Amino acid sequence: MNIKSVGRLVLGLFVLLGTIAYGAPSNGMTPSKTGDKKEEKRMPDTSTTSNGASDFKTKVRSVQLVKGDRTPSTVFESDDIIYVMMTGDFAKGTQLALFWGETTELSQILTLTESKKNNMIAPYFQPKAGWTKGKHKMILFVDKQQIGEYPFEVK
Questions:
Q1: How far apart are CA 65 and CA 72, in angstroms?
Q2: Domains, in order of start, for the chain
Q3: How far is CA 150 from CA 1, 57, 99, 139, in A?
Q4: 65-100: buried (b, 16+ CB within 10 Å) or exposed (e) per residue?
Q5: 9 sits in which H/E element
Q6: How far apart are CA 65 and CA 148, in angstroms?
Q7: Contact yes or no for 25/39 (Cβ under 8 A)
Q8: Which residue of 49, 108, 124, 138 has the fewest CB atoms within a 10 Å radius of its CB?
Q9: C-alpha–C-alpha distance, residues 90 and 92, integer Å
Q10: Per-residue pLDDT tens digits for 89-147
Q11: Could you tell me if 131 and 78 are in contact, meaning their C-beta atoms sit under 8 angstroms apart?
Q12: 32 phi and psi, to 5 degrees?
């Protein structure tokens, strides 16, 4: 891991721990792809303990891939930074693993250092050489439990 990767990881951790106001709904609702209606997308309860630091477990309510301007998308450019906007309750000590693509070479492992209820976090990633054109996916794990696969395309 070079200094630039470490810098991105540290900056991502600041974003992850901050209370960034993306305007994301806190009720677990995510916009539908078919228009202005909203459909509820339930995420599995990860049953994560928080190393005794809080009285709740991590529960991810929604996950979306978004562009830097906070626009949800599944289509990106090769130089885009892709954010993973998650809403829910996040307990201290929770480990997030994000695998970008078919190989663990493009991956992130983050451990939360604070507990936050009804919050939004947004770790992000961009390969040093930019994204290769084509179809990709991000696979999200919370404390070693797979939460979902999120396909996206780079044009």
A1: 6
A2: 3-31+39-154 (2.60.40.1930)
A3: 25, 23, 10, 6
A4: bbeeeeeeeeebeeebebbbbbbbbbbbbbebbbbb
A5: helix 3-17
A6: 12
A7: no
A8: 49
A9: 7
A10: 999 999 999 999 766 566 889 999 999 999 999 999 988 888 999 999 999 999 999 99
A11: yes
A12: -80, 155
Tokens representing residue 142 in the block: 């919370």
CA-based nearest residue to 67, from 59, 58, 75: 75
pTM for the whole thing? Answer: 0.64
Name the region of 51 (left: φ>0; alpha: ψ -120 to 50; beta: rest).
left
Place of tokens 């794990």: 141
